[in-house]
Amino acid sequence: TGVPRCGASLHEPNKALRIELNANANCIWQIQRNANQTIRLIFSHFKFAPSSSCETESIKVFDGPSTESPLLGQVCGDTDAVPMLESSSDSLTFLITTSSTAFTRNFFVYYYFFSPGTKTENCGGQLTGPNGTFSSPNYPAPYPQFRYCVWHIESPKNSKINLQFQDFFLELDRNCQLDFTAVYDGPTTDSGMLGKVCGRAQPTFESSSNMMTVVLSTDDTNSYRGFSAQYSSVLLPDPMKPNITLTCSSDSMRIVLSKPYLASLGFREAHLQLNDPSCRPVVTDSVIFSFPLASCGTIKKDEGDSITYTNTISLAPAGHVITHQKNTEITAECRMQNNETLEVIYTTTNNAIQNLVSRGRYNVSMAFYESDSFSKPIQYSPYYVDLNQTLFAEATLHSSDPNLQVFIDTCTASPQPNFGSPTYDLIRSGCNKDDTVVTYPAFENHGRFKFRAFRFLRSFPSVYLQCDIVICDSSSTNSRCARGCISRHKRALAPYTWKTNAVVGPIRLKRDLRAAEHSESPSEVEAAKTPNPQQYNFYTLAFVVCISNILIVVAVVLKHHKHQVGYRYQNVQSS
């Protein structure tokens, strides 16, 4: 595009940048425009070299036209948030520096100009009380572009917050770089992020205190229905019990200990460590360990019917003198299994917690793709196909543990979304039952297969697919995933580790679409071609994922007519 490979001077009213840098980079981007407006800059994805620190690799943002301007903020590899920075004028500068480590760094950043205090910026707010509801701007109509909405939730003291999204429909991309919702465990976006979500889902979050922060950020490409959410307060455990919580997700383990409880044991937060001593806690009103499942010395074990992640907090008493009169360790275990209960189980000795167990669930989604490159998901519904057309399906596990394998155990077709009779097997117990099915080798956190649109479609107007998806430890040679196709008499000998169920569809024949168009009157056809101003002529393909008896709806939406993308992408590379 003629843009410098390292840094640039930007004058457009909004732009998104995909930045790829290698070692020893020192690149400056300057944003400036005579608009008498403020600049909002969002780093929605950043990946630095492993084990880097703020001293060796960082993004520095300056409130003005050069790096001599006041420092507005800094982003590093351990930043636990989606950084958003705003200028005080119509110019802003950011500098990315990298170390000499050979590694390809990736960043996604976008900016736009806006006028603070205007009606278009009026979203978010303060929510107080034991329960409440809130929704995205314009819900259920499509949300507006270039919005950054922040809701601060505060429940009564001695309680924590349970947040549930009953309806959630945002633009989908792999890293949630475009439109996203981020949830933070405290009163601000500096409190530690509980998660970032996009696409279509029904996520739930739980805070460790009586405060939570929710952010909605949108760009100017696709706008969908947004979300509707409700929160409720949950009383904290009996004060007579130790105040400690363990939360397990598909990505991370989070342990929160109260300072009074530690003090009652004679421990200081400065003397706490995990199996990997370099993993240190964040100390605020509480002492918080938050880390990816497969890091900080966590020990993973395949239990047959579950996968467990275990780490140990070593508690060195004040003065560094370790006694044996009280337990000096707390064992925290995340147990990933098919159970919707998220209860915390305490085992105590001498009034001190010895073991802490919490149950969690893996996050799995499923989609059709245009080709065997699996790069472009089908984003409309119903999915109209030709008879004998090859269809490509992918199940994706969203987890920070790289040593997991996704296995497609069974896939069944049915004209009914509830999968009543009749049904047709594509895959059964890992064995291909339809002669057009081809299963791809396991690839990272994906399970993939292809098949041809089958004769089933000739007899029924719509067809749905239901797949049983198994998650295994990729290092296990005796797991259900490793055994592949299992004959009928051997099925009982191959227990699965973690299993979920996914439904995609409907699939319909293109000839039925053409027949429907010809059967309509001219006025009906013309009306069908006229865009609906409320729906923006959207079509929806819903992927229904039932995980541990909780129905999670994941969907992506695509405009029926081609749309203009409000900003251009740049691929910026450094040699």
From TrEMBL:
Residues 247-488 form the ZP domain. The chain crosses the membrane at residues 538-558. CDD domains: CUB. The keyword Transferase does not apply. Gene3D superfamilies: Spermadhesin, CUB domain (2.60.120.290), Zona pellucida, ZP-C domain (2.60.40.4100), Zona pellucida, ZP-N domain (2.60.40.3210). SMART domains: CUB, ZP. InterPro entries: CUB_dom, Sperma_CUB_dom_sf, ZP-C, ZP-C_dom, ZP-N, ZP_chr, ZP_dom. Residues 6-114, 123-234 form the CUB domain. Keywords: Disulfide bond, Glycoprotein, Membrane, Repeat, Signal, Transmembrane, Transmembrane helix. This is CUZD1 protein.
